[in-house]
Amino acid sequence: MSWSVVNEGDGLPRIILTEPAGSSAVIHLYGGQVLSWKNEKREELLFVSAKASTKSPKPIRGGIPICFPQFDNLGYPERHGFARNRLWELDTCPSPLPRSNNHSSVDLILKSTDEDLKTWPHSFELRLRVILHPSKLTLIPRVRNTGSKDFSFTFAIQNYLSVSDVSEIRVEGLETLDYLDNLENGERFTEQGDALTFDGEVDRVYLRTPAKIAIIDHEKKRTLVLRKECLPDAGVWNPWNKKAKALPDFGDEDYKAMLCIDSAVTEAPVILKPLEEWTGCQELSIVSSSYCSGQLDPRIVLHG
Ligand SMILES: O=P(O)(O)OC[C@H]1O[C@H](O)[C@H](O)[C@@H](O)[C@@H]1O
After folding, report:
1. What is the position in ligand 1's atom list of the atom closest to the CA of 80?
2. Where does ligand 1 bind, in terms of residues with CB under 6 Å?
3. pLDDT tens digits for range 71-100
4. How confident is the model at residue 9 (pLDDT cuts 50, 70, 90)?
5. Domains and CATH numbers, the chain
6. Cα of 14 to ligand 1 centre, how many Å?
7. Does this complex have an ipTM over 0.95?
8. From the CA of 240, how far away is ligand 1's center (Å)?
9. Residue 131 clears pLDDT 70, i.e. is over it
10. pTM attached to this predicted model
11. Is the N-terminal amide bond of 57 cis, ω within 30° of 0?
12. Among 5, 62, 218, 240, which residue carries the largest CB count within 10 Å?
């Protein structure tokens, strides 16, 4: 068996993935959301607010929410779509993706319901495979059009990353790119600096990014590398102190310990004909680094 299921106080099942080197992941069926990812040293790599609610119909504040059929507010009424507010199921038939022989993976599925069809009138199957390797977590989302008309959608895997102190974090891989700034009514700008650092609220979508983005945390002596396929854009979000206070499911000081870096397809929505399937992929991997010894070279992490 590649996973086990536990029921916690909220009565909703969680799936636990473990692998021989000692890392683990916890996935909640509510939202199909990875809520915990620990490395071999049992260090938590994802952020979940202590004020997060796991009771429907509220999305869970933290972990890795899946945004479908829209990222942000791009036309459909429910911000970030409804997939993060639905109970997913185990997927016993992940075809045409071959069954995983990997002992630390699980397949989940969300299908359109009659209720969803009232507001988004398109039949779909949304699948997610989660694979745990030593120092690496892979997510493979797929969307299939099971209806009789074309539909289009935008999509995001939101990664609430746990960081030592957001004001000490550097993000490499987004320099010189165009981005849409949600704090400036979605206006388009071009990134000027050589790396992103943080000293205030940020809410941007970087367009057509390279496949790899490095999140460098000198204090934790580690770099997280986000590698993505068919998810060309990247969201970057931190509410900072003022907006943090306005979020009911987020602690006043939580903004210091998290940074959202999202894998997204938003600028050019995906269009699916009946029976067509779209597949994306994101890998989060950990590279240990020591600032003092100078082992970390972002150019090697990003291009090596
Ligand atoms: O509060 P939520 O609906 O979960 O959204 C959390 C954040 O998600 C994205 O990063 C958006 O760009 C932000 O504008 C939004 O505040």
Report:
1. 3
2. 59, 72, 79-80, 182, 203, 235, 237, 260
3. 988 777 789 999 999 999 999 888 888 877
4. low
5. 4-164+228-283 (2.70.98.10)
6. 24
7. yes
8. 12
9. yes
10. 0.94
11. yes
12. 62
